[in-house]
Amino acid sequence: MKFVQFSLIVSLILLLVACEKPSVELTTVSFVNKDKGSGNFDRMIEICFTKPLTSDYYHQVTIITHQSYKLQGGNVLRPMASDPDNKCQTRNLYNYINRSSPIGARDMIKDYMTPGNINQLLIKVYAQKPEGKELPLDERLYKNL
Question: Does the pLDDT at position 3 exceed 80?
């Protein structure tokens, strides 16, 4: 009986280790403008890693401007099928607007979330969407972007 329990425990541990996602490491975050005239892609951030993503991850971003405007949000980062060797992911700041965003968040992003006006940007990357107090795989604080 003890051998069966031991075998079951070892199997579960091996299964958990095999399912673990590769670690990720952030390198840079920068503001880019990918707009072609629509006005919808003028506020983008480019999140770069040491190597291209090979699995889905969840990230949270907190951006604070020099005027103390704050934007918080998060979503899934997926490997890019169209460019699997690209180490960077581009995200639209407008997609970080959610229920807890301040009224007029779209105008706030348009007017204040510009290159040179960002006091701090905190980014956290998780293996999956955090449910409680999980620790991120990587987190970085960038200043004066």
Answer: no
Domain 23-143 maps to which CATH number in 3.30.300, 2.60.40, 1.10.8, 3.30.870? 2.60.40
Asked whether 26 and 49 are in contact (CB, 8 A), the reply is: yes
Residue 145: pLDDT over 60: yes
Quickly list DSSP for 2-42: HHHHHHHHHHHHHHHHHHPPPP--EEEEEEE---SSSSSSS
22 pLDDT more than 60? yes
pLDDT value at residue 111: 93
| Spatial distance between the Cα atoms of 17 and 24, rounded to a whole number of angstroms | 16
What are the helix and strand counts (H, E) for the chain? 2, 7
Could you report the per-residue pLDDT of 110-124, keeping only the tens digit for each?
Answer: 999 999 999 999 999
User: How many Å apart are CA 127 and CA 138, to the nearest integer?
Assistant: 10
Show me where the domains of the chain are located. 23-143
DSSP state of 96: G
